[in-house]
Amino acid sequence: MPGGFRAAAVPLRHNRDTAAVGPGHRAGTVVGMTKTASLVVGLLLLTAACSTQPAAEPDQPATESPRILLLGDSVAAGEALPLAAAFEASGVAFQSVAATGGGNIVGPNAEENWKELPEQIASADPTVVVYQLTTYDWGTRQEQRAAYDKLLTTVTDAGAELVFVTSPPIRPDDFYEPHMPDLTRAPDVARAVASSGGATFLDATAVWGETYERTRDGKPDRSTDGIHTCPQGAARFANWLLTELAEHPGGFTPADPETWANTGWSADELFRGC
Length: 274
Hints:
By secondary structure, this protein is an alpha/beta fold. The protein has seven helices and seven strands, in the order αβαβαβαβαβαββα. Helix 4 packs across helix 5. It starts with 34 loop residues before the first helix and ends in a 28-residue tail after the last helix.
C-alpha cells in the first residue's frame, strides 16, 4: 500500500520527556495485567457490549479499503492496540502515531508536535485521519479553534478526511484540575470546526458515559490513574469506532470481535492500573 501503510501496523510509541507530562501519562510502577487476567478479560470483553455486525450488501462494486491514521496522546496509544487487531481482522490498513506524553495539536506539547505532524500525515498517505482529543488540548476557545482548523487544513491538503473523536472522561487530579474548563470546552470547538469545515465529529459518550467509571459489568474498564483505559474499555471503544467508520463512504465490513478480542494485545505493558 502507498505511504508505508501496513495492515494494522503496530502503534508507534513516542516517549517525550516534557515538563507538561502529567502523572497519568508517566510510566508508572503499577504492575500490568497478568496474561491470565488478560485472557479472562478478553473472553468477557464484548459478550454483551457488541452488536451483531451487518453482512455486506451483495453485488456491490469493489471499492478501495480505507487507510486509517490515528492521532492522539497516551490514551489513544492504549486504544490503538485493539484497534490494530480489529482493523487487521477487517482487512483495513491502520497506523497509529499517538504519542505518550503528548500527541496534542494545541496546548503544552503542540509546538513540538507540529514540527513532525504534517510530514507524518503526508507520508502515511491516509484516506481517514482520526484525531482523538487529548488531555493536553489546553488553550482558549480561539487557540483551540485555530489548532483544529489547522489540523483540518493539513489533513485535507493530504487528501484525507478528518474525524474528530472525543476522549474518555477523566478523574482529574491536581495536575489536570486547572485545565478542566479547557478540556470540557474542546469537544464543542471540535464539533464547530467539523460542522463548518467538512470534517466529521464523533461523540464517544455512548462508549464511556458522561463521567469516569472505573468498572463496567463488574470488570475494570478504566485505569486506576483516572485517565487511561483498561483492555475491556479499549476493546469496547475499538468495536464502536470500527462500526462508526464502516458507515463512511468507502467503508468496510468490521470483523466479528471474536476474531480480534483475544489475540494477545490485552497483555501489553501500556495497560496499567487495571
